[in-house]
Amino acid sequence: MAQQHNLGFPRIGDQRQLKFALENFWQGQSDEAALQSTAQQIRQHNWQLQQHLQQVPVGDFSFYDQVLDMSVTLGNLPARVAQLNGTELDNYFRIARGRSAADSHCGCVAAAEMTKWFDTNYHYIVPEVTADSQFELNPQRLLQQLKQARRQGISAKPVIIGPLTYLALAKSKDGSEPLNLLPRLLPVYSQLLEQLADGGAEWVQVDEPILVTDLDSQWKNAFEQAYHTLKSNRPQLLLTTYFGKLEDNLQLACNLPVAGLHLDVASDQSELNKVLDWLPVHKVLSLGVINGRNIWKADIHAILDWLEPVAERLAERLWLAPSCSLLHVPVDLDSEVALDSEIRNWLAFAKQKLQELDLICQAINLGRDGLDASQQAQLAANRAALQSRRASPRVTNPAVQQAVAAITPQLGQRQSAYAQRVLQQQQTLTLPLYPTTTIGSFPQTSEIRQFRRRFRQGELSAAAYQSYMQQEIEFCIREQEALGLDVLVHGEPERNDMVEYFGEQLDGYAFSRFGWVQSYGSRCVKPPILFGDISRPQPMTVGWAQYAQSLTAKPVKGMLTGPVTILNWSFVRDDQPLQTSCEQLALAIREEVQDLEAAGIQIIQIDEAALREGLPLRRSEWQTYLDWAVNSFRICANGVSDRTQIHTHMCYSEFNDIIRAIAAMDADVITIETSRSDMELLQAFEDFEYPNEIGPGVYDIHSPNIPGQQQIVTLMEKAARRIPAQRLWVNPDCGLKTRQWPEVTPALQAMVAAARQLRQQAAHSAPARQNGAEAVSV
Ligand SMILES: Nc1nc2c(c(=O)[nH]1)N[C@@H](CNc1ccc(C(=O)N[C@@H](CCC(=O)N[C@@H](CCC(=O)N[C@@H](CCC(=O)O)C(=O)O)C(=O)O)C(=O)O)cc1)CN2
Ligand SMILES: [Zn+2]
């Protein structure tokens, strides 16, 4: 008999209950008891949904992030919060956000760095370590939840992040090697495992997704060392990997002294035969057979075709699961009553994926012929749904396919090189040294969201909606003029999200109403669903951009999301290569770029926030990805005249590895995140002698803390030691939509004042800016 289990369930709640509970708590509108009670309800509900599983994940719930939770469990919180007053939860949120609910009037501490979880759009809080880091077990969260789950009658399997993945994700604050901490860390893990066993856990899921990445011999040896130290029969360990193949780590993973191994085989079963040969016969093999990252119905017959012989070989040793935690998919398709029923029939969210898993498990245990009538009907319905998707004329658009086939290299070429373009752009734009700008969005107030909701629900006419949004744009422009910014933006009030907004307007996309997925903390996205060939029926942003430009003499940046980012933050097709989908998007956005230029917009920003995160986890696959990703950006961006200044923006990115690709994008200006990492990222741009302009983010917009003028000046001085001042811009490190106006206004005042100070300093120490723009306004 095969068993079924799950690696993790979405914790935001089917109506985003956790989001609202957190935000109320942070704003001081509710107390910790209310927050804890919402959390408990969500956990109970999730466990109930999964109670038919032989092993239900516990500890997958988190108030902010599971990596930060692990830091708490290991007693590894940054020293800077240790002396502060307040509860454990206060310190937890201080690290995550820079402040707790109790700190409403101060910017008490720097938030920890936040970065992408592998190649997903989920962000974790980076553990901080130094050579002196000490660990101390704090198992209360896990033990309590284990107890609660067991009280509910659940067969509970605690989930923890394994020691190697924890150290691999950690960042050293003093240049020391995090891996050196392993001997100090392991005793704490041993204690934790023992206490979980005492708490009644028979199995513990130890997540080591780092095993699907390239590991050098030092890390491979460390795996051996760690798991030989942790070796225990009580509890049994399920070594869990996901997001890809193990490749040269496969043998290592098979042979570590644990009781079971979980592999992601949902989209690629090529390693399975080796595993069956190599895995010692006493071990459980858990197979991730359902894709935990997309929203398509699984092809159950196809899965059974390859799984049945495997099941025969493994018998009792086979466990079945989704490929990874279901954190990355929405909760329940049943809520999507408004979704086109044909497309809806092609989809499965978290709850439906567990139903698919159940059906697969039954078919394995009873045989396809042994299923009862209702199960047979489900199987037939699954086959019919897949056929309907494959045959649907809505998926294909011959004109789009022809356009993609006709793409030539010329399509991605600017007329002249940057060195020539910049002269023309300086003539028309006449910007000062250290030009100031923002990344695009201004606060998405609850009023703006209410208007959007009322319009969507038909309570507001299109004309009334447009006029409200225009007022909002005007307000934004006037604020920016008053602040003295040099390049303005319209503020993006009309956008629910930078990707979903475009998805809604492009043909080939469907979108959900409740399909929320956590991105970081309380923040969620509703990734649009790319199901067919992409085309742009009409301009998507031109009216708003033109209106904004009509209000001011300063240049207003047109604001678009690039093809790679739209692709990476959508649920993508699994029936054609990503490259093809990306090229289709590139052609659609290119039309928008050209329409903006024709409408008189002189600066166009094309955000590629997710270009870096789409990088495959394996280096051997990087170049192929970068080639088509950069090419798609170039197709979309480079159909403009030399006078039009193209900006791009990337956030939370490590650029060292991909600096060549960034240069190959050939944007005139790139704005990037650097503030939480103290301008460290600029090293790559300096080493590479990056030729174009850069706006290194001077303050962290993800924290409510307000930066000081001097702090910004210091950061920019640091930047100017690496990059010539003539090529530097001054801007926040990302859009301001998650902030409130009382935070934004003083922060931008400080930023503009800092730019003025920098110009003054430059005027006193050096000749005025070369190449035009001699008017150094201060
Ligand atoms: N797709 C994507 N990925 C990204 C980013 C991004 O901007 N987009 N940024 C980076 C960081 N990630 C982020 C992810 C989400 C948000 C964010 O602000 N999300 C919003 C939701 C945005 C949204 O879609 N809002 C809709 C719907 C909002 C809503 O809840 N409406 C209510 C009613 C309105 C109200 O009372 O507030 C309803 O429908 O019931 C809208 O504004 O129209 C949130 O969680 O609060 C920010 C950053 C990396 N990844
Ligand atoms: Zn950004």
UniProtKB/TrEMBL annotation:
Species whose genome carries this gene: Bacterioplanoides pacificum
Name listed for the protein in its UniProt record: 5-methyltetrahydropteroyltriglutamate--homocysteine methyltransferase
Name of the gene: metE
Residue ranges constituting the Cobalamin-independent methionine synthase MetE C-terminal/archaeal domain according to the UniProt record: 435-756
SUPFAM superfamilies for this protein: UROD/MetE-like
Keywords: Amino-acid biosynthesis, Metal-binding, Methionine biosynthesis, Methyltransferase, Repeat, Transferase, Zinc
Residue positions binding L-methionine: I439, G440, S441, E492, D607
PANTHER family the UniProt entry points to: 5-METHYLTETRAHYDROPTEROYLTRIGLUTAMATE--HOMOCYSTEINE METHYLTRANSFERASE (PTHR30519)
Domain Cobalamin-independent methionine synthase MetE N-terminal: 4-313
